[in-house]
Amino acid sequence: MAVPAYLSSERCDRMSMISNSEAIAAWSAMPIDAIEAYDDQGDFPKRHLMNGNLLRMLGPVDGRKVLDAGSGEGYLSRLMADGGAEVVGVEPAAALLARAQKIEQERRQGIRFVQADLSTLPEVGQPFDAVVCSMVLLAIPAWQSAMAACVGALKPGGRFVFSITHPAFENLYPTWRDHGHYQLDRYLDEYEMPEGCAPDFHRPLSAYINEVVGLGCRLTELCEPRLDPQVASESGIDAIESYVALPNFLIISAERDR
């Protein structure tokens, strides 16, 4: 079986320090075939590791207003709309937004997609009952402003669920594939990770936790998803057992206290 694109170790040359606008431009330059490769569940890790946990941690969404902060091509917005949520998706990258809007025009689920930078979030219907920000904060240079905007968009008592690549196990698949185990020699620094054609940034877990608590939120759950061994065995993907042994993703749920 061919290795899926999300597991590729191919890299694009890029400046080591970039601005929000440069990051957005990089995401906007994603090849259309990569964007269209997403299905109704996203991709392999989202289907088998992320989606069920994200939706469980959000709680019942039927009749609730939910902000999909960094909605990409919209697959998670559509899953929440299927569950009865009133969804607003915010996405700054034009190519991803266009794909989301095209599918919404075809399916007419009532999702409103808005082009905006999360770090300078405009009025999009706040306050919301819940905000989900999946695999987004790690890709934003001005992530603290973006997280503050997500929390600020919530009603008091509202739920904020966000996911990131686990800071202790980044590059899990290629490292395991190349060495048969995981190796880590750098954690506490903050730095850009040159993976793919759009940037991600490493920050220690304490940075995210301290920030969300400092914004007046109470942590309710930390989830480190583990791939089902049978799914791994049946996938035919070499070295995918790394996802059984170690958590490549981290999902955090918090509630706004004030």
UniProtKB/TrEMBL annotation:
UniProt entry keywords in alphabetical sequence: Methyltransferase, Transferase
CDD domains: AdoMet_MTases
Keyword hit for Methyltransferase: yes
Source organism superkingdom: Bacteria
Annotated GO MF terms: S-adenosylmethionine-dependent methyltransferase activity
Keyword Protease among record annotations: no
A Pfam family reported for this protein in Swiss-Prot or TrEMBL: Methyltransf_11
Protein's recorded name: Methyltransferase family protein
Native source species: Kribbella rubisoli
